[in-house]
Amino acid sequence: MGQRKAPKDGDRKVGRRALLIGGTAAAVGSAVLARDELARLWWRVPGVEKPRKEGEVDFAGARWVAASDANWRRADRPDDYGIDMVVIHVTQGSFDSAVKVFQDPEHGAAAHYIVRKDGHITQMIRELDVAYHAGNRDYNERSVGIEHEGFVDRPQDLTDKMYEASARLTARICARYDIPVDREHIIGHVEVPGTDHTDPGKHWDWDRYMKLVRAARTAPA
Fold first, then answer.
1. Is the pLDDT of residue 84 over 50?
2. From CA 146, how far away is CA 16, in angstroms rounded?
C-alpha cells in the first residue's frame, strides 16, 4: 500500500460502455464500441464466464478472506484482460489492519493477496478479477497484486518466511500465466506510472527475492 492515504485507484466503478447481448451491440450517442472493447466483453454472454466456487483460492495453502466487492471489479482474466505482471506492495501496517481496510467498502483499494510475516498467505480477491491495488487502471487489469505485512522503513519486518512464501506465490502466478521472471514483469508499487506510493521501499531485497522466485519457478510443483 505504501503511503497511508486514501488510495486513488484509477478504476472507474461505473463502466465506460453499454452492451446489449442478443445479437446486437448498442452505440452510445454517435460512439461505436471499439473492436478491442467488444473482444474484452465476449465472456459476459450467459454461459461463457468461468465457473466460480465460493471461498475457492488460486494458490494452494492460501486462506480465503473476501475483500469488499467495492474494492475490485468482476472480470474473467486472462480471457478478457491478459495477465503479464506481478506488483509487490508493503502494507504500511499490520496484517490484521490490511485485512480490515480491504474489507472496508470506503477504502477503495485491495490486493489479491496478503503475505504475513510468518509466511501465511491470505487471498482476498480471485485472480480472475481486477483488484484496485496499483492506482493505474491498465496496470490493475494486467497484474496480480501481493501485499506484505510491515513498514517500508523497518527491514526487520521483511522476514525470511515472508520472502520465501511470497516467492513461491509469485512463481506460481508466473507459471500460470507464462509471465517472464524478470524485473520488467515483477515490479514494485513505486514503479507503477502515476502512483504516489513508495513501497516496497529501499529495504526490499530485489536480488534476493528474484533468486527465490526463479528457484521456486523451476522447482517441482
1. yes
2. 27
What pTM does this model have? Answer: 0.82
In this structure, how many other beta carbons lie within 10 angstroms of the beta carbon of residue 67? 26
Of 182, 191, 193, the closest CA to residue 217 belongs to: 182
> Alpha-carbon distance 131 to 85, whole Å?
13
- Cell numbers representing residue 20 in the block: 446489449
Question: Which among 141, 111, 131 has a CA at the least distance from the CA of 123?
Answer: 111
Query: Are the beta carbons of 80 and 128 closer than 8 angstroms?
Result: no
Cα–Cα distance for residue pair 114/107, rounded to 1 Å? 16
Within 13 Å, how many C-alpha atoms sit on residue 88's CB side? Answer: 29
- C-alpha cell read off for 141: 487489469
Name the residue type at position 68: S
Q: What per-residue string of b and e applies to 196-216 under the rule 16 or more CB within 10 Å gives b? A: ebbbbbeebeeeebbebbeeb
